[in-house]
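batch_manifest entry 22 of 60
target: Helix-turn-helix transcriptional regulator
source organism: Sporosarcina saromensis
requested by: lab member K.T.
priority: normal
notes from requester: please return tokens only, no post-processing; we will run our own comparison against the previous entry in this batch. if the run fails, retry once and flag.
--- input ---
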Amino acid sequence: MNYGDRLKTLRNNKGLSQKDLTDRLHINRSTYARYETNSTQPDYETLSRLADFFDVTIDYLLARSDIPNHKAVFVAGKDINLTDEELVLFNELKKHQIMFHHLMSNPKKKVKELNKLYKMKQMFMEDEE
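--- output ---
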């Protein structure tokens, strides 16, 4: 997926026409239309406004990442990027030192593994209801 497709998908997900979006962000509609067709690229200021509006990262807009929004946390001397869902789990793990200590060997991998386990637990709990 390229940046034009990402912009169009994000706009459509919000139920906005190009005119609605460009009016809100004070962008020329024909210029924005060229972004969606990959005819031209937005400048940094416009990218920032679009990313803020859609609550995604600039890397996601530019199709350099498939994670719409992530937060960086510092663990074991490394910055790791987490999705919002992973960040919630990470913050919960910090309350339990034994579990949090488990993250130190490979934080990114361990958070992903623990997130999968957490999701599986939720699925089993839903089945029991």
